[in-house]
Design brief:
This protein has 131 residues and is mostly helical. It is 73% helix and 0% strand. The protein has one domain.
């Protein structure tokens, strides 16, 4: 598979992960565990609203990924968000994670895929600036 084809495939796959997690798991609340995680970390009173807002933000992230707008900045934002989200979950609610403490490993793999897609497989590779 050529780099451009791999880049396109990975870009759509990464966007799909954000979209699916945002829409199905949070906005439609088809995976109530996500709202429970938000409830424990951010408080029960607004867990429903906050889960919905997080889901909408994830859908917006998917759209941003597909737009290609400032893809380097997008890559960095994704990595920071995934690292922070998964670190907080590991610290505060490991019992609610799908794969328990192994979740952090899958998060790191996803981070590596996002990084590789932008910095190795993208036609922008070699550029130093954030665009």
């Amino acid at each position: 598979m050529r780099n451009s084809s791999l880049h396109t495939f990975l870009t759509y796959s990464i966007a799909f992960v954000w979209f699916a997690n945002g829409l199905y798991c949070k906005v439609l609340n088809l995976v109530p565990r996500h709202q429970k995680i938000v409830s424990v970390i951010l408080g029960d009173q607004y867990a429903g609203v906050l889960t919905l807002l997080i889901g909408l933000a994830e859908i917006i992230m998917a759209i941003w990924i597909l737009s290609g707008f400032k893809s380097r900045l997008n890559c960095i934002v994704q990595i920071i968000v995934i690292a922070m989200m998964n670190s907080l979950e590991l610290l505060f609610v490991p019992h609610l994670l799908l794969w328990g403490p192994w979740n952090i490993l899958y998060a790191l793999i996803f981070i590596l895929i996002i990084y590789s897609n932008e910095y190795y497989f993208s036609k922008n590779k070699g550029h130093v600036r954030i665009s």
